[in-house]
Structure formats: structure tokens, C-alpha cells
Amino acid sequence: MTVLVSGATGFIAQYIVNDLLKQNYKVIGTVRSQEKADKLKKHFGNNPNLALELVADIAAPNAFDSVFKKYGADIKVVLHTASPVSINTKEYEKDLLIPAVNGTKNILEAIKKYAAKSVERVVVTSSCAAVVDTSNQGDGSVVYTEESWNPATWESCQVNGISAYCGSKKLAEAAAWDFVRENRNVVKFQLSTVNPIYVFGPQLFDEEVKDRLSSSCELINALVRGKPEAQYLQGMRGNYIDVRDVSRAHLAAFQKEQAIGKRLILSNGPFTYQDLEDIVNEDFPQLKGKILVGNPGSGKDIHKTMPTIDNSKTREILGYPFKSLKETVDDTAAQILKKDGKL
After folding, report:
1. Pick from 97, 229, 283, 332: most CB atoms within 10 A?
2. What angle is formed at CA 239 by the lines to CA 211 and CA 3, rounded to 5 degrees?
3. What is the mean pLDDT of residues 87-110?
4. Residues in CB range of 39: below 8 A, 6 or more apart
């Protein structure tokens, strides 16, 4: 079976590609440049079951048409992971909203034009940002479920980078569900979405450990490497999930009938920056005196003031336990220290 993975060089997407290849799927990945394609092919040992196609700009009109013209009859599953993640911008429409929404619409329109009868399942990588209302982050009485939606509109989310990012994820996911409803008589595919919260975990390839990591992993990276900005992250709080669990969920989303038409919310509970400090200080004594300590053990009190994410329906569908905060932080930190020659 052939699976298309958009944005194949991404942190999560690399794990998805790896898991697909391990299960003997043929994988077509889209990448933004030939340089990225060459690097990814090398990472995967020039696996003959991995083909890469260039899609320089997912928001450009007809961005995915050439890929589906070439492979449309073969593709049975589409995993759309490509989406902008930059929050350090004031060009909210240009850098976040338009690429996220149009990128999703473009890949679905390409399926409609060239693979309406062959693609059977589509999984869109959304986010818990499409689920939660950021204005309620300090309210411990709030409970979010798979039915919850961020109330953001195109206009209301253009306040700052974080609001615009959250809005872009909500609006892109909503566009996917709208597309299925409006084209039910044209396309045969069934839709599922995967909505992860802060995604921690090691890079799939050690070579991908750079000075700065993806926005979620940078929380751990800044701490482990003693970066000055770690000081300003001490108020950080949220929920977490391990990247390896996110990858598994993408495969389950198209392999399991129970996932059809479902939003899979991926969270394994709350964390605070203090929790990260406690784990790293305890498990990596070589960093003692070189990294933040904070107020050990105080994170648990903050957990009580945070909204709850009840993803029991998702856990029942997936049927596997998620990795603990300790495991995901330890694996992330150990890889960074190995890269720096400190392990």
C-alpha cells in the first residue's frame, strides 16, 4: 500500500515515515527543496520504498497537483503533516493563516481532482491548539475533550504570534472537516485528525540535534544547554506527549476503523517547567550547578490550576499507553548531551 506524507522532513513526520517503512508501506514524501530531499533519502539509507517529491510552497495554487497526477492512482492513504509553525511573526495571515488553511485545502483538492476514487483515508495533523481556548489557561475547572474547539476566528486570532498559530490550526482543521462534508458525493476517503499538545522526545536522527530545536523540544534544549532564555521559560506550563506516540497515532488513525471521523487528542497529562528542571537535575547529575533548579517539587501545585484534557475516547481507540514525562524528557536530554559530548 502507498502512503503520501506531506512535509516529510518535519520532526513528527520523520518518525511517521520511519514507522511506515518498518511496516513495509511504500511512502511518498513531499519536501520543500531538493537539498532536503537528498538529506532525507540519505537518512533513510536510500530505501527503495521511499520516494520524495518537491512541493516548494504548500499554499501556492495547485501545490500538490503534480504529485497526484504522477501517483494518484497508487495512493491509498494521505497523511497531511505539513503546516507552518513560526510564532515569531507579525505577518499573521501571510506566515500562518493562509499557508495552514490553503495548504490543507490544496492537498484535499488535489485528491478530489486526481485521486477521488483511490484515496481511502486521510489523516490531517492538527493540534491541541485547535481544541483549547487560550483565554482559559489559568482555570482549573475547565475540561477539554475531543468535542472541544478553540473559538478563534480569522479576525480574532490576529493578536499575536501564539494566537495566530492557534487560530491557524483551528481554521485549517475546520477546513478539512468542511471539505469532507461538502464533497461527500465526490471523494471516497474517510477523514481523521491527530491533535497533539506540546510534543517532546528525541530527534529520529542524531544529526538533527541542532543548536535550536523545534518549539516544544526547545524547552528542554534550553534547560539542558543552560541557555539564558531558560530563565524566562520558568513560567511555562502545558500538557505533553512523546513524538513516538504521535507517530503511532497517525498510523492507527488510518489503520483502525474506530478512528474514522474522529479527532484524536494526544496528551499524557500536565507539565510545568519546574517538572522539567526536576527530572533533568535528578537524572543528569553531571549538569548539577550548571542548569536551573527552581523550586523543586512545586510543579504539582500548579497542575491543579490548569485545565484538564480528557482524551479518554482517544486512548480507547489507540489502545496503547503513552510514554511518561520522565521517559520523554530523559530521552530528549540524553540525545542533546550525547551530541555535545557530555554523556
Report:
1. 332
2. 70
3. 92
4. 9
